[in-house]
Amino acid sequence: MDRKEFRDLASPTAAREALDSLSLEGGVDRVSLAEARGRVLLARLDAELDVPGFDRASLDGYALAARDTFGADEADPARLELVGEVHAGEEPDVALESGQAVEISTGAVMPEGADAMVAVERTDVDENGDVLVRTSVAPGDNVMFAGADVAAGERALGPGTRITPRDIGLLSALGIDEVPVRAPPKVGIVSTGDELVRPGNDVDSARGEIYDVNSYTIAAGVEDAGGEAVLYPHAGDDQDEMERVLREAANECDLVLSSGSTSASAVDVIYRVIEEQGELLLHGVSVKPGKPMLVGRLESSAYVGLPGYPVSAMMVFRTFVAPAIREAAGLPEPAAATVSGRLAREARSEEGRHLLLPVGLTNDGDGETLVYPVDKGSGATTSLAEADGVVEVDAETDYLEAGESVTVQLFSPDVRPPTMLGVGEDDPTLNRVLDRLENPRYLSVGSRPGLRRLREGVPDVAVVAGPLERELEATTLGEWEREWGLIAQAGNPNEIDELAALVDRDLRFVNRTTDSGLRSSLGAAIADLAEERGVERHDLVEAIDGFDLGLRAHESPARKVIAGEADAGLGLRETADRLDLGFVPVGSQSIRVLTNPDRIDKPGVRELESALETIDELRRRSSDD
Amino acid sequence: MDRKEFRDLASPTAAREALDSLSLEGGVDRVSLAEARGRVLLARLDAELDVPGFDRASLDGYALAARDTFGADEADPARLELVGEVHAGEEPDVALESGQAVEISTGAVMPEGADAMVAVERTDVDENGDVLVRTSVAPGDNVMFAGADVAAGERALGPGTRITPRDIGLLSALGIDEVPVRAPPKVGIVSTGDELVRPGNDVDSARGEIYDVNSYTIAAGVEDAGGEAVLYPHAGDDQDEMERVLREAANECDLVLSSGSTSASAVDVIYRVIEEQGELLLHGVSVKPGKPMLVGRLESSAYVGLPGYPVSAMMVFRTFVAPAIREAAGLPEPAAATVSGRLAREARSEEGRHLLLPVGLTNDGDGETLVYPVDKGSGATTSLAEADGVVEVDAETDYLEAGESVTVQLFSPDVRPPTMLGVGEDDPTLNRVLDRLENPRYLSVGSRPGLRRLREGVPDVAVVAGPLERELEATTLGEWEREWGLIAQAGNPNEIDELAALVDRDLRFVNRTTDSGLRSSLGAAIADLAEERGVERHDLVEAIDGFDLGLRAHESPARKVIAGEADAGLGLRETADRLDLGFVPVGSQSIRVLTNPDRIDKPGVRELESALETIDELRRRSSDD
């Protein structure tokens, strides 16, 4: 087996330095004001005119010479001759002489001879049409002089300004309708690997095909960091095609990211192309996940090879590549988004590798933050989707104790930890309840693991189906019944009529794992059947073809039936109805939503409790679907 | 004068309630995965397939039956017959029997008969081609079972999820390439007022025209809040046209915002249209700035009338409208972005109105945050561009003491207070120095006010031109000379040869304000001339036409000369050269950059000090321009 080995791994610091040595900067864009928000100004903008461009009335009232009002008050108003009016958007057609006033509206040009104005509220007009001014004003009162807001020649916005709506106000005032901004660095994304299929197409699981996760995920990460993502057509494992796509991307982009393939041949092509057409600066970095990272140059572009596994790819991207893109885009480091909390479970690192540990967050009953590792493996997309941030553990530390205080770097400042963390059985009614909550997180790990985790004290809630194995100090928030049985092919062509058919006939069955509450109920039903027949439970189980084939999710057996790989599967009536499959009822079981008594007052748990009161309505609705 | 009065002002709470009673929600968009980042999911997405879709090898190595390795170790490896290989993206063409192994690569389909795999690193291949397994593995080791990441039927993403790159990873894994998301609320922006001109066109200042600041600013605010902004053509003050545009916007949008006009006739049209075609819910709110706010319905759309002044418009928008748009867009309230600090100057409110006070931030020498009010008036766009956030003062409080601790709501979580706050003289060389700093703020208030503010202790730095009036305990960070004199029309057609020409000939002159260091130097030069001639300084000043016309900014006199409104203006040689105008040298003056000794170690001040060392280079460059 010919494999590239990653020996002499670089330290995270060396990897950052390698990336810093590359230039990712894009060029210049000229954008209109309507598109300028959030962009980064490339050059200083100076005011080319005064704002306002004229001495401007700040109120509705009368323009006058301040000295004509000196000494005036309520008892002894100054009387001025009204000689005209000026409205906003008009050129004054009148000039004032001593003892005169002009009616003026907000925003209008102050007429010649006027050096102040008085608000209409402080005046009266007498029977002759003269203006009585009941206060004295000083020169400049209620007038905004030309250039008082921004003066011609003033430095308006500096280079590197990230344009806010307020800056757009300033640019508008200056009449500027187009600004030079940094072009976002153009980042080409090349995915390789024969097994990858772009979303929207069909995958052939028998051939080991999977959807290409990295391309769109990394593209979204690139745009989050202020880059422009360009997705190149999927190159498969065809070496010539891969080389062609890599070179095309390198010619068109400031940075090329390759990702996806774990096959040795793909890695070989990338090596060869980088070494022939560019330069390899770094090969392998001692972080976990993420070891197989490449950094180099290709043609005139920077190049980073990301690991194939989605979690590794995103972690390497986030830790090393995103900061370089942000820097090139001229964006500041995002506001510190960290949360401190208590580690809910111990975590182990590996000898000498810097650990990037995805974690989820929740609050315990006292409002203290609990931090729990999310470890479904580097190959699992849910390891990130179900996490809120990362705990970094340096290479020297190989063990974090449960209860230790840790700092979590949130994935972004926008991350909102879930209001309620639930674990346990998967159930269609439960899913509709969850839809009513603000920001819940639910991990469908099955009834048994759910109960165990509730006892361990991390989640707020466990959802359990079927009989409880042992008593638990928990409060029931809600409960409902669900009908379960055998899911058969559409129209039940095998005419399966009862559970015993699995034992007595030659039918291929698909079960659920022992974690599932459905499996517990099935076990109980088989025990009843054994007692009825006066045989051992074990004998019946042995007679069922596929009893040991336990699938994790509640719909998976039904999917096997649809695919023709089984004649019957364990499942819910709701699932059979929704997928238009046959259904043989066997029993009904209760689903209970349990919470630890010390979480009962947590707002998210209260919200769940209220939502559970609508279950009857939700179930009625679902039967109308 | 016929004016709408805003009596019985609503409280801020009542204004929020009026807005909450309106529905701004947009419809449904279906977007591709590439466009889904940041959008808000409208409906729950369940997994329609298992991920992975097959039992998948997690490493490069050998697929085998775990029981065949039981008891194996380094000393006594298990020997298995190698019967084939499977690569990623291939359907296995081999099934295992007891004692057999299959070479398998990461991501490949586990062949029938295998229930575990061993990493290649724990194996050898002997001379017969048999595989020696040097460890025992348990069933399931190094295999990711079908559905272990996401199982068919599982709740993948809940409604209301704001889609992150990590969620895009999950959607990709499920093969979903299009998602239903909330359409952003469509917000029509109608600006009115004869005096408003859209940026990019010319303004006629003599007619009192100004650029339309609110349209683009509010549009950017709408997009910041997650809405889609639609700018309608500027309607001027033509009543029929205004009505037509308002109705069109109401028909096409979820919310119509009008803004801009302060003219009574425009307000009248809006009233009439809202009252005839819709409903007026609220008229005037007791906040400052922002009193004249309207809330109502128009056709099937919500309607908010914003005040005309940019600062008032943005404050009302930010306080009342942006939260409603965010809510309709399904976006969460932005992460709390508040900063506490000490108020640097007292602030006064007005009887019974809730005050929204724009403030800037800086740190004093001890790193403590100073909060200073930015009050250039509601009509000034720089009141917001030069501020970092808002201090809210409720209607019951009418006075905040200097030194009081206040909480500042930053304009957004992205706001970075300036690293260095400078005040004082405007100068082209200084502007180039500022361009070299990370995030400076400079307020060109003139030399005298700059010195005063430095003494008061808010800014870090004051820049002063000309002779210092009195000694100050300040450290000089940098100093340079600049040449000043009279700026004449291009080619100096009036053949102005010296300062005395202003006194002796009939020339129209434009001066700078007494705040300016240039004005001080001019005063000194005239005093010298008076002494030379043996006359009073006052007599010379009286003989200069326009000596009292003091403009605020260093380029404004030059602009008056260009406009033909003056024959000569006070200014710098640099300005004359840049604008291709004539220049009559009178003298040179020094510019000094001063800092309070207790700020000398502030990083932004140190950065400025370093940048000032490059002045010679910057000035050389500028003369090459």
From TrEMBL, chains A, B:
> Entry's SUPFAM superfamilies?
MoeA C-terminal domain-like, MoeA N-terminal region -like, Molybdenum cofactor biosynthesis proteins
A single Gene Ontology CC term: cytoplasm
Q: Which InterPro entries match?
A: MoaB/Mog-like_dom_sf (IPR036425), MoaB/Mog_dom (IPR001453), MoCF_biosynth_CS (IPR008284), MoeA-like (IPR038987), MoeA_C_domain_IV (IPR005111), MoeA_C_domain_IV_sf (IPR036688), MoeA_linker/N (IPR005110), MoeA_linker/N_sf (IPR036135)
Q: Where is the MoaB/Mog domain?
A: 188-327
Give me the segments passing through the membrane. Answer: none
Give the highest taxon in the source lineage.
Archaea
Name of the protein this chain belongs to = Molybdopterin biosynthesis protein
Per UniProt, the keywords (alphabetical) are: Molybdenum cofactor biosynthesis
Q: Which Gene3D superfamilies match?
A: MoaB/Mog-like domain (3.40.980.10), MoeA, C-terminal, domain IV (2.40.340.10), Molybdopterin biosynthesis moea protein, domain 2 (3.90.105.10), Molybdopterin biosynthesis moea protein, domain 3 (2.170.190.11)
The metabolic or biological pathway listed in the UniProt record of this protein is: Cofactor biosynthesis; molybdopterin biosynthesis
State any GO BP term from the record. Answer: Mo-molybdopterin cofactor biosynthetic process
Q: Which GO terms describe its molecular function?
A: molybdopterin molybdotransferase activity
Per the record, a Pfam family?
Answer: MoeA_C
